[in-house]
Design goal:
There is one protein chain. Helices cover 28% and strands 28% of the residues. With 379 residues, it is α+β, with helices and mostly antiparallel strands. The protein folds into 2 domains: 164 residues, no CATH class; 204 residues, no CATH class. The strands form 6 sheets. It has a 5-stranded mixed barrel.
Length: 379
């Protein structure tokens, strides 16, 4: 009898232990499932934050970014919200509160530094915080199983900073044709035109047409300059040693090819700042002015973005001119008129911020002042 009672007590103890352990194990399993859900939410929030940050920072590639206009922040917020919502978190569109999207200046030489929102420096970055927390537009993550342990919901978030890295170091021709055309303008003249050029045209991206209305972005008068200063503008002979109109027409219509660059300078990759941050230049022959016979080809490019060269000096003259090329810039062809009164002749390009294929940035290159670079996630 004594042994039987003792065995019954042991069985009862084991049953209690099994019940207790089972409850604890079920609790841990429930907690593990909800923790896994939080990890999934965190991953999906990160994807949404990345998309929102890149979309918000794309404002720096348009007029609002070039001008650093007052509505820059609002455009960045709207774009970040729209693109984040295209990404789902736990099956629902990811919503961003306006306060979770911040435009500011990131020190690209110290990307771990805080985002400067004072406005004292040129804005170049957008920070996005995507949240599933109590009080956010998305709300907290509701637990399904951990409720048995008293945990009804949890919070998780992810952040991203995207920046327009404008430390333009060079250009790599990645396709047979590209945006480069054989035009060059003096670097100082170009800089002056950015501040003092005319503002007569704008571009409607919806209809893909150039309008005769101002938009606060000044045009650069590639040809001729106000006082017809010699050496301010030229046509480059990039793989076209005979200065022939047909070859130049083809380059204007379709772009300078990689083969053209290799024939002229021995490489299809232009390097304007080397790995040590030292400037590199190229001497390319050319002729001053612009041939009237090229007018039709240029007219076909109205509305298109082209790449053109900057030089800092010219030696020789006429067909013997040699331009020292120091940089590239990009702009949209707005109008051309090479007929009639010489005072009315002109080719106007509106500068654009460019981040197309082939752009090379380097941490030792100087800022291009928001004109050429790469849009990327920084952290």
């Amino acid at each position: 009898m004594y042994r039987a009672r003792r065995n019954h007590r042991r069985v009862g103890t084991v049953v209690v232990q099994v019940v207790v352990c089972s409850t604890v194990l079920l609790g841990f399993c429930a907690l593990a499932l909800d923790i896994a859900q939080l990890h999934l939410a965190r991953t999906e929030l990160q994807r949404s934050a990345d998309a929102g940050a890149l979309a918000g920072a794309s404002v720096y590639l348009e007029n609002a970014g070039l001008l650093q206009s007052n509505d820059l922040r609002n455009i960045a917020i709207q774009r970040a919200q729209a693109y984040a919502a295209l990404n789902v978190t736990l099956g629902q569109p990811t919503l961003l509160d306006a306060a979770d999207v911040v435009a500011g200046t990131l020190d690209l030489d110290n990307p771990a530094a805080p985002l400067d929102t004072s406005g004292d420096a040129r804005f170049n970055a957008v920070r996005v915080l995507a949240r599933r927390t109590d009080g956010s537009s998305n709300g907290a993550v509701v637990h399904n199983f951990a409720r048995i342990l008293g945990f009804t919901e949890g919070g998780v978030g992810a952040s991203a900073i995207a920046a327009f890295d404008d430390r333009f170091a060079g250009y790599r021709q990645t396709t047979q044709y590209g945006p480069l055309v054989p035009f060059t303008i003096h670097r100082d003249v170009y800089a002056d035109m950015l501040e003092n050029g005319p503002d007569e045209y704008s571009y409607d991206s919806d209809s893909d047409i150039v309008l005769e209305t101002a938009d606060d972005v000044r045009e650069v008068k590639l040809y001729p300059y106000w006082d017809n200063a010699p050496g301010n503008f030229g046509l480059l002979n990039i793989g076209t040693p005979n200065h022939g109109v047909p070859a130049l027409e083809e380059q204007i219509l379709y772009g300078v090819t990689a083969a053209d660059l290799e024939l002229e300078i021995g490489t299809s990759e232009l390097t304007f700042y080397d790995s040590a941050g030292q400037p590199t230049t190229y001497n390319i022959t050319g002729t001053p002015g612009l041939k009237v016979g090229l007018s039709d080809a240029v007219e076909q490019r109205i509305g298109d973005v082209i790449g053109f060269f900057l030089h800092d000096q010219v030696t020789g003259n006429g067909a013997n001119a040699v331009y020292r090329i120091v940089d590239l810039r990009f702009g949209r062809v707005m109008t051309i008129d090479l007929h009639g009164n010489p005072n009315h002749k002109r080719l106007l390009i509106q500068p654009v911020a460019y981040t197309g294929p082939g752009v090379v940035v380097h941490h030792d290159a100087p800022s291009s002042n928001g004109q050429v670079g790469a849009l990327r996630i920084v952290r």
